[in-house]
Amino acid sequence: MVDPIFFESWAGLLRTLFVGSTAYILLILLLRASGKRTLSKMNAFDLIITVALGSTLATVLLDKNVPLAEGITALALLIYLQWAITWGSVRSDRFQEVVKAEPTLLVKDGRYLEQAMRRQRVSEEEILAAVRQSGKADMSAIDMVVLETDGSLSVIPR
Question: Is the pTM of this model over 0.85?
Answer without folding.
Answer: no
